[in-house]
Write a structure and sequence with these properties.
Layout (H helix, E strand, L loop, with lengths): L1 H28 L8 E3 L18 E7 L4 E6 L7 E5 L6 E8 L2 E5 L15 E2 L5 E4 L5 E7 L7 E9 L2 E8 L17 E4 L3 E2 L5 E3 L2 E3 L4 E4 L7 E4 L3 E3 L4 E3 L4 E4 L7 E4 L4 E3 L3 E3 L7 E4 L4 E4 L4 E4 L7 E4 L4 E2 L6 E2 L6 E4 L4 E4 L4 E4 L7 E4 L3 E3 L8 E3 L11
């Protein structure tokens, strides 16, 4: 029973970790504009700001928010460079696209398998899971997954090299198989290029992405009261994201018994409490999963989940000689002490015993019998040596 309880504890913890991980990555999957922990700044009128398009070596990010009907392209390394934003009401015929003019190379921060829906293998190669090469002098389209079904709605592209131009964004096509891969331009597609943004006049210049307040995963502006969700290690208080208790890695409140996961060195017990030690009896500190895990049903104290990792046994079980195993019986020549719950070596006169003395026998070896003395049980010799001529 306790073994299955332990497995259930581990399974529950993994579900919690998955939900935390899923929550952390959700904004990436739904294409949160600016990514996790950032938002489009509300004001950028200072002369420090500019509106440059991508150039060689630059890294730009695309975020596709199908819920709001917004797509954002922005420079991840230049906090003063304004982004480009498109408003699209229907993504049903939209696909990922990268178009390279005159050959070149670009790198992604995600697995490039989402950009393999339609391409010309004579010109396009995938030397690694993050790099794509286009043969020199070639102008070609690389079409990716459909936006309504893809799991990649946010990624970064580095303009590593190109012949004359490179663009990335979205292509609209009722039938992707009718799209010509080679030749033409990017003017009918949606996105940013080295030299321009398309469709002409459709991409609005917006303020650069700015950081949310500490602890915010998503926000509407920089104030701590503008958080709409919190990063791991924080919980949403009355008006803002607040840090968890110092022992908690994830939580729903400040105190140590409002945790859903614990930091290394702390252990989750009673489902929501993190502490630096586990209960002394019936649990052991599982430092892999940071939980107080139940001992095996035979163990009263233990260092692991099985009955071979016991240091003290429960009633009805006995610690085996020179081992850490708890069983419900002892080997021949040993008896289970009901007080210490340890297998002890019987006296030589005892066949079965509860202690090491000959007064603690419950059955005798051949050649011994129980004393009838009302005050004690003594194993005495059954064969009396009689001296010839001695009067009994």
């Amino acid at each position: 029973m306790f073994f299955w309880q332990y497995l259930h504890s581990i399974w529950s913890l993994q579900v919690k970790k998955f939900m935390i991980s899923f929550s952390n990555s959700l904004s990436l999957l739904i294409g949160q504009l600016c990514g996790v922990g950032k938002h489009i700044a509300s004001s950028c009128g200072s002369t420090f700001y500019h509106a440059n398009l991508p150039t060689l070596g630059k890294i730009w990010q695309i975020d596709i928010d199908t819920t709001q009907g917004k797509v954002l392209w922005w420079d991840v390394d230049d906090k003063y460079n304004k982004g480009r934003q498109a408003t699209i009401s229907d993504f049903s015929n939209m696909y990922h696209i990268v178009m390279v003019f005159g050959g070149g190379t670009f790198e992604l921060n995600v697995d490039n398998s989402f950009l393999k829906t339609k391409y010309n293998p004579s010109y396009v190669t995938y030397p690694s899971d993050s790099t794509i090469n286009v043969a020199g002098g070639t102008t070609t389209r690389i079409i990716g997954e459909q936006i309504t079904t893809t799991s990649v709605t946010s990624y970064r592209l580095k303009f590593t090299s190109y012949g004359t131009n490179m663009c990335f964004g979205l292509i609209s096509a009722a039938n992707i198989n009718t799209v010509a891969l080679e030749g033409g331009d990017f003017s009918a597609h949606w996105g940013v290029c080295v030299e321009a943004a398309f469709p002409t006049g459709q991409l609005m210049i917006v303020c650069p992405c700015a950081s949310c307040a500490t602890g915010c995963e998503t926000c509407t502006w920089t104030s701590s009261t503008a958080c709409t969700s919190c990063t791991t290690g924080y919980y949403y208080g009355t008006t803002s994201c607040q840090p968890c208790h110092h022992l908690c890695s994830a939580c729903f409140g400040y105190v140590s018994n409002q945790c859903t996961a614990c930091k290394p060195g702390a252990f989750l017990r009673d489902s929501t409490a993190c502490s630096e030690a586990c209960p002394f009896n019936e649990y052991w500190p599982d430092s892999t999963n940071n939980i107080c895990a139940p001992c095996d049903s035979a163990c009263f104290r233990c260092t692991g989940p099985s009955n071979t990792e016991c240091s003290m046994c429960k009633t009805g079980y006995f610690l085996q000689p020179a081992s850490t195993i708890c069983l419900n019986s002892c080997p021949t020549g040993y008896g289970g002490n009901p007080t210490t719950k340890i297998c002890v070596l019987c006296d030589s006169s005892c066949l079965v015993c509860t202690g090491s003395l000959n007064s603690e026998c419950s059955a005798c070896n051949p050649g011994y019998f129980y004393s009838q003395h009302p005050q004690q049980q003594l194993a005495l010799t059954l064969v009396l040596k009689l001296d010839i001529g001695r009067t009994l």
